[in-house]
Amino acid sequence: MKLKERAALVTGGSRGIGKAIALALASEGADVVINYLDQNEEASKVVDEIRRMDRRVLAFQVDVRDFDKVSDMVEQTIEKFGKIDILVNNAGIVRDKTLRKMKKEEWDVVIDTDLSGVFNCIRAVINRMEEHKNGKIINISSVIGETGNFGQANYAAAKAGVIGLTKSVAKEVARKGITVNAVAPGFTETGMLEAIPESIKEQILKQIPMGRFAMPEDIAKMVVFLASDDASYITGQVINVNGGYYM
To answer: Which residues belong to the active site?
Structure first.
């Protein structure tokens, strides 16, 4: 129960890594807010699981690209829970295509969701965290933000931007009791991985020294650690959870 009496907001919390994070935070005692875009059924299932843990839980269908709606979500959360101790920026999408074939809207929607969405959420909570002189912000980046990847210029740029944003905000709020870190997952068993052809997945797997893809729970465990008091002197860091995969 490392997170007892804490309140956490997880964006993209209805499935995949976000779902695993939400459940892991709740299992350690936190009350949890699930943010999602259009997965109503999946979000309802996560809410039910958290309620069975006897935790308070809220769900908001909000597009993280919308600054005003994100701000409203945060204010409603504070009305219900009284505070937000933990923010996990997990919401993200891909629109894979080589740069020569990429449409501007495919670039824009990934940058707006995966990078500007992180800004929107941090901006909405930061003043409240400063008032309490306490807060844990954990941004989900990606190994692709460090290595780049063929056909993912938009995604790589957004996730690299998340790393720069993490390090900058960490410096701004370090004296105010707030830590800001990023987790960079490797290839993880989620819907994004399922979309990759089997032949490509076999090639990727050969480059992972541990010989397996990450499970969402592997990422969630690191988030729980960074959200806990055990990580109170860790800020501005990018923690790779990738089984040793580097290119």
So the answer is: 155
Question: Rounded to an integer, what distance in angstroms lies between the CA atom of residue 47 and that of residue 23?
Answer: 9
Do 126 and 167 meet the contact criterion of CB atoms below 8 Å apart? no
Q: How many domains does the chain have?
A: 1
Q: What is the CATH number of the domain that holds 87?
A: 3.40.50.720
From residue 182, give the alpha-carbon distance in Å to each of 2, 12, 36, 139.
Answer: 20, 16, 20, 5
Determine what percent of the chain is predicted with pLDDT higher than 90. 92
pTM: 0.96
User: Is the dihedral angle over the CA atoms 60, 64, 69, 75 positive or is it negative?
Assistant: positive
**pLDDT of 196 above 90:** no
Specify the pLDDT at position 46.
98
Which among 88, 93, 145 is positioned nearest to 121, based on CA atoms?
88
Phi, psi of 6 (to 5 degrees): -95, 155
Query: Is residue 116 included in any domain, yes or no?
Result: yes
Residue 182, amino acid: A
Assign 247 a pLDDT band (cuts: 50, 70, 90).
Answer: low
pLDDT at 188: 93
